[in-house]
Fold this protein.
Amino acid sequence: MRTKEETIAALKKLDSVDSLSHPAGLTKAAVLVPLFMKDGQVHTLMTRRAKELRTSGGEVCFPGGKTDPGDEDDVGTALREAKEEIGLPAGQVEVVCRLFPLVSKNGLLVTPVVGFIDETFSPSPNPAEVSSVFSVPLEFFTSGKDHRALNAASWMHSFHFADPDSGETFHIWGLTAMIAIMVAAFACRKKPEFEIGFDIHDPVPFFQWNLQREMSKL
């Protein structure tokens, strides 16, 4: 069991804002991974997109979206989108780090921004964008119990999370699952019970290689 301070210290060591060479030409996007303490464990908030959305409708994701011209940087994008989607004020987020960017299935260069929020925060989801908001213990993403590999060659992961609060089961997969695994492995300093492809103590080579591989497909 890790404290908030231990989790922040572990994640700050992985702040990757300058550790990878970012490819030019891709549309940039960012997501916020909101962490908070609950019952002595680190949890993360996740959302399920409204089914009516043209892109990834009904899928589980973190609050986020494409960069707007007025955004100062990836952090600004992630905070703006979190406010628009779940009503989270930027001033209530303690930004911890930016992690390695990943290429989405739609060809977006997505940077995960990790931040801590207060456990008392009550989401106000925008119904035009979000149908559900739920929380998951971060260590869930290091366990093999509810995990399966969709495609071992491309590191595609899938989880089914049974939410005890709502009684619903959420399917977490693809880019969102990879981001959750990344944050959980780094924050908990714990190698998951399944193959992830990267060394949690030296992850840069894998994510540089993965970025180049995804770019070659576009």
The CA atoms of residues 107 and 218 lie 7 Å apart.
